[in-house]
Amino acid sequence: MTKITTILLDCDNTLVLSEELAFEACAELSNEILEKQGISDRYTGPSLLKSFVGQNFRGMMTSLCKKYNFTLTPEEFDSYVDRELGKVIETLEKKAQPCPGVMDELEKLHGLQKMHAEKKYLMAVVSSSALSRVQASIKKVGMDKYFDPGHVFSAATSLDRPTSKPDPAIYLHACKVLGKSTSECVAVEDSRSGATAAKNAKIPLIGYVGPYEGAEQDEMYNMLKNDCGAIYVMRHWNEFETALKTVEDAVA
């Protein structure tokens, strides 16, 4: 009989509403680049996300160069990449908010650790983002108290060779460090890349679509459920107890 002992949580838009803020910071730097090139177009966070979805900041800059037919030196590229992380962290430290309802669920889980040995869950954060960005996010919203510093994992920072989701490397690394088998863990993810990473690591999955709206929420719900094999998909964190029980029943 398999027992779930460990909850592995994505950070961006799963624990903390950070994605739009990150793109807001990227938009500021992108607009600075365009201004220096004498180009009048400007981006907002949402328009940048729509135009360059799925790309990291270096990829966005490469796409900007191609779209507007200009070049940046390798030194300029590296300088902007370094500044981007700092700018994102600065924005998160000012504006980041927890996903609705997540603090209540983390507090309940934290309480179980103190009160009920048979219902004690180890909790960890498993993210593709840089460790400094993840730490800034969870500290700003006051949830760092729920996670041991050694239980916050970053695909960009924790691995010997940075390997982002959907590669399962960061999940497998986290399980190894925590001393847990993948079958006794459950992952909580909001995106295709993160859910695919959990699926490829053979970790039972809870999907979360709270940050999405309207038709997009329904599309993400179906994708996480049907394409990525989520055992349960939450629209709000107040469903977490039901989601966790559903997973535990499914793997028992």
Automatic annotation (TrEMBL):
InterPro entries: Beta-PGM-like, HAD-like_sf, HAD-SF_hydro_IA, HAD_sf, PGP-like_dom2. It comes from the Eukaryota. The keyword Metal-binding applies. The keyword rRNA processing does not apply. Pfam families: Hydrolase. Its cofactor is Mg(2+). One of its GO terms (molecular function) is metal ion binding. Keywords: Carbohydrate metabolism, Hydrolase, Magnesium, Metal-binding. PANTHER family: 6-PHOSPHOGLUCONATE PHOSPHATASE (PTHR46193), HEXITOL PHOSPHATASE B (PTHR46193:SF18). This is HAD superfamily hydrolase. It comes from Lepidopterella palustris CBS 459.81.
